[in-house]
Design goal:
Elements (H helix, E strand, L loop, with lengths): L5 E3 L5 E4 L2 E2 L4 H11 L5 E3 H8 L9 H15 L11 E4 L2 E4 L7 H14 L3 H13 L12 H27 L3 H14 L4 H13 L3 H19 L5 H11 L10 H10 L40 H12 L4 E5 L6 H14 L11 E5 L9 H8 L10 H9 L5 E5 L8 H10 L4 E5 L9 E5 L12 H6 L1 H13 L9 H11 L4 H8 L7 H13 L7 H15 L3 H9 L7 E2 H8 L3 H10 L4 E5 L2 E5 L2 H10 L2 H26 L4 H24 L3 H18 L2 H12 L6 H17 L3 H18 L2 H17 L3 H17 L6 H22 L7 H19 L2 H15 L4 H18 L2 H17 L5 H18 L11 H15 L1 H13 L2 H10 L16
Parallel strand pairs: 7-10, 7-11, 8-9, 9-10
Antiparallel strand pairs: 1-2, 2-3, 4-6, 5-6, 12-14, 13-14
Helix pairs in contact: 1-3, 2-3, 4-5, 4-6, 5-6, 6-8, 7-8, 8-9, 8-10, 9-10, 12-13, 15-40, 18-20, 19-21, 20-22, 23-25, 24-27, 27-28, 27-29, 28-29, 29-30, 29-31, 30-31, 31-32, 31-33, 32-33, 33-34, 33-35, 34-35, 35-36, 35-37, 36-37, 37-38, 38-39, 38-43, 39-40, 39-41, 40-41, 40-42, 40-43, ...
The structure holds adenosine-5'-diphosphate and magnesium ion.
Magnesium ion binds next to helix 13.
């Protein structure tokens, strides 16, 4: 029997014994806390000593611990029971605190929370949570010093927030939104990044008829995330926002009584951390928000397909993990795949929810099977993954996830089928749905042929005709162009014939329906019959029907619109109006509108305004119609417009507009690469060369190193490049090589560029080559040469005019010179004296210049160096630098740099005392994942100390034990970037308050 001692840690530490409250003095309080954080487990005497005397200032001997233990024992138990001390037991190699169930408030809190999560009755669950929360009297371990207590307090705080989220969610399910709207604002203000709390508040405000407040609350959260972390809200908040905007009935409050009954009838949730026990549309997820984009939601209703979906659901329920939807272009494969994915993601079917959601990977714009895996990585928000290790890196990321991937338009990339099969084989919870005209033919694949929409049977009555999927689709689309479109009694049969002539192929139906503006059903049928009677006999029937319909649709355009349609075939991805105007001239809008009206071009409204695109069958048709001369002209105009875009972006990468430009160029990347290809094919070295030069910084920061290198190499082989261009192609190629870790090769290429720059008097290029060869010297350990070249680069850059790369290079040159001086100081060679001090001046100057320009890249390079210089004597200052650099890297999506900063943070943290080793190990795993992802070190000019990192690693492994260490690494490996950033910067165990939001000065 243990005696009735109560210990309360959820606030200042308190002890209550049978004899009443037992106040404890400083050291005894710390000792009790040191035992309580591991209550029920043996804590080694050495560990206790460390926890008691963290600064090592006092004698930390086990004998001292023992005398403290003796004193504490007598306070907890007035008399030693005959069977020995019961509460504070001696167990080799230390001591153990044993309390009765419920006697330690932190344990009781956790127990009640688990209990609540297991319940199906929300009212009972809410009572448990209320009891759990009522145990709190203030911050946990409030009056106990020491990092161990702070780490535990941080964990408890996290659980308290989870409890608050659960409470809010249960309240919402119980119809108590007004209470939530009153209680939550204070909490959300204190925890602004907590998406679950914010989502609950948004919903509560909405239900309390405060819609404007709800939107404001969402918007505030979105802005905070964007400003502080450079990320978008997670899927939960975004979905809520969408529902909010359309005032979706799903948001409405449940009637109190039915809510309880409904929830009680639901099966118990086996996955309390992901399943929402109350069916709240906020769909609580304790998993961190992810960068994964939401599935696109088609603007029209899905017609027919009930049988297809039923079969597909059955296949997935039975364990199929690779399903290919095949069928002719336009038959509705993509649409069906999206419908399936959305249903599985939303968990419309209880058995089959994908906790990590569904992701669409559009593949139409790729032309190399090797790019499939990188495209998957990008769609997952993993960032740039390239090279031979790419598949493994993506597999490692996918391994823990319960995710559905939709690979759309696979037919031209069948060589990548093995990669897909391998991902499915190695990732146990991954399900892949592919759309393709042809099956992949790999093991485990299940093919589902997508047939056209159901047609009305011959001789069907009007009602039956009108309710068939094909006719409904036709009439729906007709109503889009002619509001109020209705069929006369005698027209019903005519439309049935139209649909039958078009074989029920949805895309063909859409094109035909767009014509009802001028053609009545009868005319339409007559013309279609004629158009469809021709057509290529060598094609399978449906494809012939589809092509004939496209031809017909095209034939009805006027000549200028036809020309535009053909020329749009040179676009690879989607485009914006300004880009199209740059290609086609300012008069293009009415023509574009005509194509949109005829359903040949689609519009979507996104971040940078309207984006236009064509469905794959339509785009291919446009290409088929394009004559050779016309194609060459269209490609030249397309390339010229994209060159202008890329060159405008180039200036933006070097200043505060970075983030926006990087995103825009990422969206236009497929077309930019197409422009490089086309210019190369046309022998237009000037355009191709200027394009790769304008893109190198984008490739560098977003880790498209292999793609960039391929493009540079292709251009570099072109004969007759003008000198000014040739030298820049080499500069860009050198940068790709350097980033990929081929420093010697980079130095050769940069040196070649240097000779050409000297010969042609190109000072801007010369400054770049001096800087480039400077950092290669640094990377190979020749500090003296590096200092010399980088100083030269500084001088050259400073002399360049304002509109050039000079100011940017000058800032970077200062930082690099500082790095070289630091290396020189370490070597102790000639000129080493005072190098450290001079280095620091250069860092500060570079930092100030970079900040003034809002250039995050140079800013974080400076911060990395400064953190290293400060780490030995001012750890908190170094940590602040690292935090800022981490946020900046995340803002521009530079994963390589992020990994360096995380490593540095781990080294710094592990050198301190027992500071939440678990978090550090998680960060270590995340750093590794980021590096695997890019597949290259990129920042070869950082002076990293691998021995220190190794030491930090083993220290953490030692502190945590092999098992926990491995688990933490794995957890870090799977963590999405923004969660990593949050943990690194705001997580428990940080030395300093979070850095001010890392936005550049305006
Ligand atoms: N079941 C359906 N209900 C409504 N519209 C559909 C349906 N199936 C296809 N569509 C529409 O038809 C067009 C072609 O479909 P899509 O899925 O792109 O074909 P595919 O991928 O086979 O080429 C799209 O505009 C799509 O929205
Ligand atoms: Mg498709």
């Amino acid at each position: 029997m243990t005696s009735a001692v109560g210990v309360r840690v959820l606030g200042p530490l308190e002890v209550v014994t049978t004899a009443g409250p037992a106040p404890l003095g400083g050291s005894l309080r710390t000792l009790l806390a040191a035992l309580a954080v591991d209550a029920g487990r043996v804590v080694a005497a050495d560990t206790l000593a460390e926890r008691l005397w963290e600064d090592g200032g006092l004698d930390a001997g086990a004998s001292t611990v023992h005398s403290y233990v003796s004193r504490l024992r007598r306070r907890l138990e007035p008399q030693r029971p005959p069977s020995g001390w019961q509460v504070l037991q001696t167990r080799a190699p230390g001591y153990r605190l044993v309390l009765e169930e419920g006697a330690l408030d932190a344990e009781e809190f956790r127990r009640l929370l688990t209990l609540a999560r297991g319940r199906t009755d929300p009212a009972a669950a809410r009572d448990d949570v209320a009891r759990a929360l009522s145990l709190w009297r203030g911050p946990a371990y409030a009056d106990v010093p020491g990092d161990f207590a702070r780490a535990e307090a941080a964990r408890l705080h996290e659980q308290r927030l989870e409890a608050e989220e659960l409470a809010a969610e249960l309240d919402l399910a119980l119809g108590r939104h007004r209470q939530v709207a009153g209680r939550l604002p204070a909490l959300v203000a204190a925890e602004p990044f907590r998406e679950g709390l914010r989502a609950a508040l948004v919903l509560a405000l909405y239900r309390a008829d405060r819609q404007a407040d709800a939107l404001r609350c969402y918007e505030e959260g979105r802005r905070l995330l964007a400003d502080a972390l450079g990320v978008d809200p997670g899927p939960q908040l975004r979905r809520l926002h969408e529902l909010l905007l359309r005032q979706d009935p799903e948001l409405d409050a449940p009637a109190p009584a039915t809510a309880v009954a409904g929830a009680a009838a639901a099966p118990p949730s086996t996955e309390p951390s992901t399943g929402s026990p109350t069916g709240s549309p906020t769909g609580r997820s304790t998993a961190p928000a992810s960068r994964r984009p939401a599935l696109p939601t088609p603007p029209t209703a899905l017609l027919g397909r009930t049988d297809d979906l039923a079969r597909l659901h059955r296949l997935l329920d039975d364990g199929a993990r690779l399903v290919t939807l095949t069928g002719t272009g336009g038959v509705g494969k993509t649409r069906l795949a999206l419908a399936l994915a959305a249903a599985r993601e939303a968990g419309d079917r209880a058995a089959a929810r994908f906790a990590d959601g569904a992701v669409l990977v559009p593949l139409a714009t790729l032309d190399d099977a090797a790019d499939v895996v990188p495209a998957v990585a990008r769609a997952l928000g993993v960032g740039a993954v390239e090279g031979p290790g790419a598949r493994d890196a993506v597999a490692a990321h996918l391994h823990p996830l319960h995710l559905l991937l939709v690979l759309d338009n696979f037919e031209h990339l069948l060589d990548a089928a093995v990669d897909v099969a391998e991902l499915v084989r190695t990732c146990p919870h991954l399900v892949v749905v592919v759309t393709s005209r042809a099956p992949l033919r790999v093991a485990g694949e299940v093919e589902h042929r997508v047939e056209p929409l159901a047609l009305p049977p011959a001789g069907a009555g009007a009602d039956e005709v009108l309710s068939s999927a094909a006719v409904t689709l036709f009439c729906d689309r007709a109503r889009d162009v002619v509001p109020g479109f209705r069929l006369g009694e005698d027209e019903v049969r005519v439309v049935a014939d139209v649909c039958t002539a078009l074989a029920g192929i949805p895309l063909a139906l859409e094109l035909a329906a767009a014509r009802v503006r001028v053609l009545g059903p009868r005319d339409l049928l007559a013309r279609l019959d004629e158009a469809l009677s021709g057509g290529r006999r060598d094609l399978p029937e449906r494809q012939r029907t589809m092509q004939a319909t496209l031809d017909w649709s095209y034939g009805l355009l006027d000549a200028p619109a036809r020309g535009l349609f053909r020329r749009l075939g040179v676009f690879s991805g989607s485009w914006t109006l300004p880009v199209l105007e740059a290609v086609e001239g300012p008069a293009v809008l009415p023509l574009l509108e005509a194509l949109v009206e005829q359903s040949l071009v689609r519009v979507e409204h996104g971040e940078d305004g309207a984006r236009f695109s064509m469905l794959e069958p339509t785009r291919q048709h446009a290409q088929r119609l394009l004559g050779d001369t016309e194609r060459a002209q269209a490609q030249a105009a397309h390339a010229a417009a994209h060159l202008a875009l890329a060159e405008e972006a180039y200036g933006g990468y070097q200043r505060d507009a970075q983030v926006g430009w990087l995103r825009r160029i990422e969206r236009a990347h497929a077309d930019l690469l197409a422009a490089v290809d086309a210019a190369c094919a046309a022998g237009d070295g000037e355009t191709a060369g200027r394009l790769v030069w304008a893109m190198w910084l984008f490739w560098w920061m977003h880790g498209h190193l292999a793609v960039g290198r391929r493009a540079c190499a292709a251009v570099q082989r072109l004969p007759g490049l003008p000198d000014r261009v040739r030298v820049r192609v080499d500069l860009a190629l050198g940068a790709m090589l350097f980033a990929q870790g081929e420093h010697e090769h980079a130095e050769e290429v940069w040196d070649r560029a240097r000779r050409l720059a000297v010969a042609t008097g190109d000072d801007e290029a010369l400054a770049h080559t001096a800087a480039g060869t400077g950092i290669t010297a640094l990377a190979r350990g020749d500090a003296a040469t590096a200092v010399e070249r980088l100083r030269a680069a500084l001088g050259l850059a400073a002399a360049l005019p304002a509109g050039s790369d000079g100011p940017w290079l000058e800032a970077l040159g200062h930082v690099w010179t500082g790095t070289a001086l630091t290396a020189l100081g370490r070597d102790g060679g000639e000129g080493a004296a005072g190098a450290g001090g001079r280095a620091r001046e250069h860092f500060e100057t570079g930092l100030a210049l970079a900040r003034r320009r809002g250039d995050r890249l140079t800013t974080f390079v400076a911060l990395y160096n400064l953190a290293q210089a400060e780490a030995p004597h001012d750890a908190p200052a170094a940590e602040r630098r690292l935090h800022e650099g981490i946020e900046l890297s995340a803002q521009i999506g530079d994963l390589a740099n992020l990994s360096h900063f995380l490593d540095a943070l781990v080294v710094l943290g592990a050198a301190g005392v027992d500071r939440d080793p678990e978090r550090l190990a998680v960060l270590l795993g995340a750093a590794r994942a980021a590096r695997d992802t890019v597949g290259a070190d990129v920042y070869g000019f950082y002076l990293r100390d691998d021995a220190q990192l190794e030491a930090a690693r083993s220290r953490l492994r030692h502190r945590l034990g092999g098992q926990r260490f491995a688990e933490a690494l794995a957890a870090g490996h799977a963590l999405p970037v923004e969660a990593v950033v949050r943990l690194a910067v705001h997580g428990p165990g940080t030395l300093t308050a979070p850095a001010a939001p890392a936005t550049p000065p305006s």
